[in-house]
């Protein structure tokens, strides 16, 4: 049984190259291609009964971009897998796609063999993120964590660490020779500063920032 694939990219040469590449694989079939995400969304709306296994999309496109297209597919047609192939490896974009269950992300600098490997991995039910994308993402996450640590005072780090170690407000106050009211103020300020909702969020941040041994 052939896997039906849809392509969305506004770069004609890249689109033609991917079509030729996929045509060489006997198990793959390019069902439809378009130069923007809006046309793909319209096609999917009009062909609800048609089997679509994978949508390969760029991020920057006119009318509807790849992030919006991925979100639409995961909400309206969650049985369809998605692979983003883009020159943009911005961590915020990657994060937005991961939050919305993208199945893979590949840099356009990748060669044809890696593109086929990504497609095959995803169609088998796996996830595929190229090494370049993972490195850019991890570097950004590390820099954000470093900035957050630098934003916290030494005392705030002490309080955050003890909160994560499940000490009560009174116990933290005793350990740091501060009043219970002062610790409560630190806790409220940490919640605001780190943009979390509760103590569980503070604990996750403490782990993420490497404050726990």
TL;DR?
It is built from ten helices and six strands, in the order βαβαβαβαβαβααααα. It folds into two domains: 3-140, Response regulator (Rossmann fold), CATH 3.40.50; 152-209, Orthogonal Bundle (Arc Repressor Mutant, subunit A), CATH 1.10.10.10. Strands 2-1-3-4-5-6 form a six-stranded parallel sheet, with helices on both faces.
Topology record:
Elements lengths: L2 E6 L3 H12 L4 E7 L2 H10 L7 E4 L8 H11 L4 E6 L4 H9 L4 E4 L4 H12 L4 E2 L1 H21 L2 H11 L4 H8 L3 H15 L4 H10 L5
Parallel strand pairs: 1-2, 1-3, 3-4, 4-5, 5-6
Verbal overview:
Residues 4-123 form the Response regulatory domain. GO terms for molecular function: DNA binding. Pfam families: GerE, Response_reg. The protein is α/β, with parallel strands linked by helices and 213 residues long. It has two domains: 3-140, Response regulator (Rossmann fold, 3-Layer(aba) Sandwich), CATH 3.40.50.2300; 152-209, Winged helix-like DNA-binding domain superfamily/Winged helix DNA-binding domain (Arc Repressor Mutant, subunit A, Orthogonal Bundle). Helices cover 56% and strands 14% of the residues. It is built from ten helices and six strands. It has helices at residues 12-23, 37-46, 66-76, 91-99, 112-123, 131-151, 154-164, 169-176, 180-194, 199-208, and strands spanning 3-8, 28-34, 54-57, 81-86, 104-107, 128-129. The protein has a six-stranded parallel beta sheet with strand order 2-1-3-4-5-6, sandwiched between helices. Helix 2 packs parallel to helix 3 (66-76), helix 4 (91-99) packs across helix 6 and helix 7 (154-164) packs across helix 9 (180-194). The longest helix has 21 residues, at 131-151. The chain starts with a strand and ends in a 5-residue tail after the last helix.
């Amino acid at each position: 049984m052939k896997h039906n694939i849809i392509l969305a990219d506004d770069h004609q040469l890249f689109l033609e190259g991917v079509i030729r590449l996929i045509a060489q694989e006997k198990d793959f079939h390019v069902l439809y291609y378009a130069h923007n995400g809006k046309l793909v969304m319209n096609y999917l709306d009009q062909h609800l009964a048609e089997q679509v296994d994978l949508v390969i999309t760029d991020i920057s496109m006119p009318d509807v971009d790849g992030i919006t297209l991925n979100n639409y597919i995961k909400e309206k047609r969650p049985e369809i897998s998605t692979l983003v192939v883009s020159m943009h490896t911005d961590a915020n974009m990657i994060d937005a796609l991961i939050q919305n269950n993208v199945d893979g992300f590949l840099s356009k600098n990748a060669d044809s063999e890696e593109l086929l490997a990504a497609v095959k991995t995803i169609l088998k039910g796996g996830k595929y993120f190229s090494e370049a994308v993972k490195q850019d993402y991890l570097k950004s996450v590390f820099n954000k964590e470093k900035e957050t640590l630098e934003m916290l005072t030494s005392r705030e780090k002490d309080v955050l660490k003890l909160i994560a170690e499940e000490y009560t407000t009174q116990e933290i106050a005793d350990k740091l020779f501060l009043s219970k009211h002062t610790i409560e103020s630190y806790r409220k300020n940490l919640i605001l500063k780190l943009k979390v909702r509760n103590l569980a969020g503070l604990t996750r941040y403490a782990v993420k920032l490497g404050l726990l041994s």
